[in-house]
Hints:
It is a single chain. By secondary structure, the protein is an alpha+beta fold. The protein has 6 helices and 7 strands, in the order E-H-H-H-E-E-E-H-E-H-E-E-H. The protein has helices at residues 14-28, 35-39, 43-55, 109-123, 138-146, 175-179, and strands at residues 4-8, 62-68, 71-80, 93-100, 129-134, 150-160, 163-172. Mean pLDDT is 86; it is low at 186-191.
Amino acid sequence: MAEYRLRRAGIEDARSIAELHAKAWRETYLGVMRADALASINLDDWTRRWRERIGSREGAQAVFIACEGDVPVGFARCSRLSSPKLAPLGFEGEIASIYLLLRAQRRGLGRRLVERLAEHLISAGCASAAVWVLRDSPKARGFYEALGAAPVGVEGVWEIEGVVLPDIAYGWRDLNALCAGAGCITRSPIG
């Protein structure tokens, strides 16, 4: 059985994350997005964007990589909440992206990545977090529901490469609950 591990990404990982991101998109969005759009992903541009994200000094920003041995098979990113639709609801952190290659799914890596993001957000002072999920993806919605996230009553759309996809926001009001039993470092609520 393969050995999987998680580690925090460094600037030197930007290219491999861009490549992994593109491959995961091609697997995940095949049939949803135009094939030519998926084929024409500009890895140099994506690498530049990942360098910026990884190098950000903003305290809640973090990228973690899931590896099979030394080979990256997935990644996840969190940050302070950036959605103006969710800010009035009191969410502080955001699960900004999580992707695993198909061959690495259903092995507990997604759960471990989300728990690691929650632990990082807690250490950065965020008590709650939200995530946007494609509304018409029961698999993705079920994944977050199994981790204790609940719909927060806000919907939107994700516009990408000429495709408009409805999405729905899920959230955790208490990230400590997400970490319970996972060995995460938790913090007492303030106040």
